[in-house]
From TrEMBL:
GO cellular component, one term: snRNA-activating protein complex
Residue ranges of domain HTH myb-type in the record: 16-67, 68-117
A Pfam family assignment: Myb_DNA-binding
Superkingdom as given in the UniProt entry: Eukaryota
Domain Myb-like: 12-63, 64-115
The organism's taxonomic lineage, starting at the top: Eukaryota, Fungi, Fungi incertae sedis, Mucoromycota, Glomeromycotina
Protein name, entry field: 7302_t:CDS:1
PROSITE patterns: HTH_MYB, MYB_LIKE
């Protein structure tokens, strides 16, 4: 297992790198479900193997139920191209405008996939 070391004031904490396990995903979802208010440092401590940044990115990029995993439609891909011509590569703004449930990173990846064809 590849590890990255993070130093805090009192001790050295080691966090995993690479793919999240099903257990880690379930711990993140459980914490979010059980706590009305939370912060990512607390989620990280609860999971025990991931940093707050890793937990936040995993949740908003993959685990959040509002994130759509469906492929983009041809009309959405066309809108991406039009948006970029007018606004540049502002993926978060584009994600809000499309309101499709696709994350900014998903839109960016789809765009780069399209232009590499």
């Amino acid at each position: 297992m590849s590890m990255m070391q993070i130093h805090n004031e009192e001790k050295q904490v080691e966090y995993r790198k690479g793919h999240f396990s099903n257990e880690e995903d379930e711990l993140i979802k459980k914490y979010i479900k059980e706590h009305e208010k939370y912060n990512w440092n607390e989620v990280s401590v609860f999971v025990g193997t991931r940093s707050s940044k890793q937990c936040r990115e995993r949740y908003f990029g993959h685990l959040d139920e509002s994130v759509k995993k469906d492929p983009l439609t041809p009309s959405q891909v066309k809108l991406i191209g039009e948006f970029i011509k007018e606004n540049g590569f502002k993926w978060a703004k584009l994600s809000r405008k499309l309101n499709s449930g696709h994350t900014p990173n998903m839109l960016k990846n789809k765009w780069h996939q399209q232009i590499s064809k």
